[in-house]
Amino acid sequence: MKKPLSVLALTLSVLAVSCVHLFGQANNSSTHQTSGHTHAQRTTYLQERVDSAFYRAVRTRHVGNLRRLIDSLEDQYHQTQQRIWAYWVAYATYELSIYEMVVDSHQRAKRSILTAIRCLDTLDDKNSEEWALLSVLTGYSITFRWWAASWLGPRAIDYAEKAVALDSQNIRAWYALLVNDFYTPALFGGGKMVDYYGHRALQCPDQVLPNPYLPSWGRAETYDLLIRWHLRQKRYDTAQKLFEEAICRVGSHPLLLRLRWEYSAILSK
Tens digit of pLDDT for each residue in 163-181? Predict the structure, then answer.
């Protein structure tokens, strides 16, 4: 799994998902919508608060609200020293970096993602959620540190594996592995585990225990990659079935709406 060129693949994967995430939601001010049993099992106050600030920045091209939220999260961390606040500082700063990379400044985007990584690097005895997010952040950072790709890529994969080892019911841990395999070229061993990682992720709850302070992202992102994978393999019936399942379980998430727009002739329902 730790192929040299999987480094570049991981970078491209995170970047591509981030840009789709950004522009696919630019005209949608609402937070994630869910339906079915998944909705009853998630409590996502902080998740929705951070994402809402990000969407607003994209929609208005003004990032002040997101920056103020990051400052507030940092204050909470400094005052309480509770690591959950460090997680959200890192996550929100990652979203800030995406915004800056696409619509603002490459240099500011680089500073933001390195700041996000430091937020988690400083934590001892990281848990599964922290390793999973750190994996994504590390892979994304190769965009700005391509000269370090040979060691950052394997490091990102190692972080994802640690996340799964600590909690095999963490959807975000499996998603971190899925991202890497999806974008690694077949010539270098990629694509062999896409279905496995994707379906393992989908078997996990958004949150093991509903909690307004814990993350819940990952399900729509997993469906997005799985559907794209089957479309790439020309397995259109499977892609359509997965899309219908995703709409049922996740709702009108912008990633899925983007998929339907891109593949309107195939994902017709």
Answer: 999 999 999 999 999 988 8
